[in-house]
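[Solved] Which block belongs to which protein?

Original post:
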Amino acid sequence: MKLADLGNTAVVTRLAMSLARWLPAAAGQGVADVAARLAARDSRSALTTAIRSNQAVARGMPFESPQLEQAVLEVLRHGMRAHADVFRAMAIGRQALLASTLLDESLRHLLDDALGSGRGLILVGAHMSAFEFMLLTLADRGYPGLALAAANPTGSYRVQNDIRRRHGLDVQPIDRQALRKAIDCLRQGKMVMTGVDRPDAAGRPLRLFGRTAQLPVGHARLAMHTGAWLVAAGCHSNGPHHYRAIGLGTLDPRDFGEGDDGVMALAQAVLFLYEPELRARPQEWLMYFPLWPELIPA
């Protein structure tokens, strides 16, 4: 088994959590850096080629560019450092989680306005930096909600979902039952959370960085079906071991027409909100699945 594949197993995730609990923060970052360098060495692994292809588009470079080798390392380093920070904070407890993440006023205002309307709120996010911190601390900061996760989670993803539940986050892998629960939640004026930038075979062709990718539109369908607001949130570094959750914008599904065309237009508008943030901080875009597999040489 390759190192990149090993990192996605439940055993390694639990081991990483145990190490993060006992290691000082600086030592945990050192371990994360070593792991990143080892993973980056395998330039042909599914992990590194996925990151390289995504970074090529985000940075406007050809896949073969030598500069992308450093870009892959930067993404892996940031991702593993962020995981080390999250695991350590979860091991220490609630106060460490709250202290690690600043919920920016830009996001608070968007959440308060949307929830105050009584129409429900779909909070969407991209895999940026330590987005996990924001998900885990929202409920403690007065914003409880239902999180829709990837369907059929395996390995490390199943362990991460269990961890999220232990910290009070209601996580539901996407299926019919979870979608019915999400609809009920939104009709009660509450919040549902989900991601928008992971490639989805059941998704639709959408534009990101000027290139078409198969991406989810379920969040747009939910908004159209229930009338709930769509709020886009991001997360980025805010100094060593600290992160900032920010609001990127609010979209009203009533402004995008009806039917399938309206769903597509709304889903596309969400991605346009993320492009400037992802371009400004490509090293913090922790997307480990290829959005444009056609770029990867056979």
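(Second protein starts here: sequence line, then its structure tokens.)
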Amino acid sequence: MTLDQVERGVDRDGRYDRPMTTVLVVDDEPMVRDVVARYLAREGFEILEAADGAEARSIIERTALDLVVLDVMLPEINGLDLCRWVRETSSLPVIMLTARTAESDRIVGLELGADDYVVKPFSPRELVARVRSALRRAALPAAGDGSDAAGPGGPGERASGSGAPGSEPPAVVVDPVTRRVEAAGRPVELTAREFDLLAWLADHPGQVFSRGQLLGQVWGYDGSVDVGTATVTVHVRRLREKIEPDPAHPVHIQTVWGVGYRFEP
């Protein structure tokens, strides 16, 4: 599939086709790129490839993409800088590929807005599962899986704050159908993972969840993958920066020391 065909929305024979789920694979190692591309293509995704950060940025600027699989160590523009740029301009889901196993290195990518990360060497099947999961969280139709795009909460708004007649509007409003969030009456831009975390907590007000429980409920990890609970900590911090009046003294996403977090209306 050529970049021109993807941009114009036509199939391999030049005919206009249904909207495609398109994934950009960015890695400077041809073998890694080829393996990832082949596995994703086998699952029905349209694949574009880039060997460096500059080429990837050009494709992202020109093309309607659904997700990016992005290596950290890249020539021209490294993966972390590219992830930062993507997050400044869009909510395009990003899955980082990294050979760095130190938790601090993974946290950097998450703090820049990556939705997930996979440590090399990795199972291609696991990566495909992560891609599908990220697309579901972004309410995009993952190729061939027929999943519901409504998000984790089901129909209807979730709101915190006063809802009585004549009172102030809710401080935080979460709509799992449109995946929109308002805080103090203003729209808030969240990544797919941030939204799912907030929606889960808001759907269970007052209930305390450990970081491990949140990894299972929101990230879908069953304990067989060692990702570290710092993933949850980073996303909670980013959420507080976006929805709390004073992130240093949160009133909605509260820490229960030694246990985890709870959402308070």
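Accepted answer:
You had them paired correctly. Confirming on the second one: The chain is about 35% helix and 20% strand.
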